[in-house]
Amino acid sequence: MELKDLRGEIDQIDEELVRLFCQRMDVAARIADVKKEQHLPIFVPAREREKLQDVAKKAGPDMENYTRVLYSMLFELSRSYQSKRNGAVSPLYGEITRAIENTPKLFPQAPMVACQGVEGAYSQIACEKMFKNPFILYFKNFEAVFSAIDQGMCQYGILPIENSTAGSVKKVYDLMIQHNFSIVRTFRLKVDHNLLVNPGTKLSDIREVYSHEQAISQCQDFLQSLPGVNVIPVGNTAIAAEMVASSGRKDVAALSSRSCAELYGLSCLAAAVQDKGNNRTRFICISKNLEIYPGSDKTSIMMILNHRPGALYKVLARLYTLGINVTKLESRPIPDREFEFMFYFDLETSIYSGEFVQLMCELDELCEEFKYLGSYTEVV
Predict the structure, then answer these.
(1) Average pLDDT for residues 251-264, to the nearest whole number?
(2) CA 348/CA 334 separation, integer angstroms
(3) Catalytic sites, residue numbers
(4) How many Å apart are CA 185 and CA 130, to the nearest integer?
(5) What is the pLDDT of residues 295-306, one digit of tens each?
(6) Closest listed residue to residue 213, CA positions, set 192, 235, 198
(7) What is the per-residue burial (b if ≥16 Cβ within 10 Å, else e) of 54-86?
(8) How many CA atoms lie within 13 A of 179 on its CB side?
(9) Among 10, 148, 241, 372, which is least packed, fewest CB within 10 Å?
(10) What SS3 class is residue 196?
(11) What is this structure's pTM?
(12) Res 218 pLDDT > 90
């Protein structure tokens, strides 16, 4: 038999599959109507498990796993369709709707903002890109920035969350599990690390280099070219520059922003020494209250999934069904819960889309616990 004949068979089978799929979805819709009348839940785990076992058994050993995957997807599609048909509005979506209505149309121009580090830090640079005239308070660490928001000391906080070279800032993700907050905007900052020294220092004089661990990891190639140099992590790139300046020593250097050279009276011995030229750090702007500004087309959520095979797949399948793109997926261990993880998702979807509404109304059934972190725009 030739290939075209086999493809002809496939086409005929597909026609029948499409007809039966539409028929199945029609029955699912009628089931949704009955459930709505009788106030029954859309998701019935026991029924799905029983059905999966039945179809897998009927498929036989060779096709058992393939059939489970196929029907798991069918169940996701059916539940999504049923939820949409019933039009149930979750308390979360009601909260989101109120936030959209009550948030000012113009992004704030001169708020009180918490940043980690000191003057000249990249967080400060990102802050001044997001706000026109911010009043900045500096804090020693990321935990203190979250606390400043929790306590109402500052209206907003700026935190680095990932870098295009070094990856995620895991400490921030861990703190996100512990604190309640809302992401109101994100910004991708082009980051150039420069080797700053006290005037008169030569490259051959340097014995120690200070910087933040993320900056150090972004400049590995350059640092390895400096034989006999001890690299010392500190809390912030601007703090590193401040330490070099206050020491007065000619054998130390800092990896910092160019603005730190002017701030602390340092000389730039080598410019843009990061491994990759297109080195960008993504910063989030957080607030205590839920604020959703016009045009928000990105959403962040955190989920705790059941610790069993297929749990993450089901979430991704639902997002795929809704046509929602996942731009970031990060997992972090949950403190005091052995081998359990919090999954962080960045999603591309407009707050005005039907898909967004449907997802917000279906989050409860997708996971064990979830946290809606906010919807926002990203400035590049």
Answers:
(1) 95
(2) 26
(3) 281, 283
(4) 8
(5) 999 999 999 887
(6) 235
(7) eebeebeeeeeeebbeebbbbbbbbbbbbbbbe
(8) 24
(9) 10
(10) strand
(11) 0.83
(12) yes
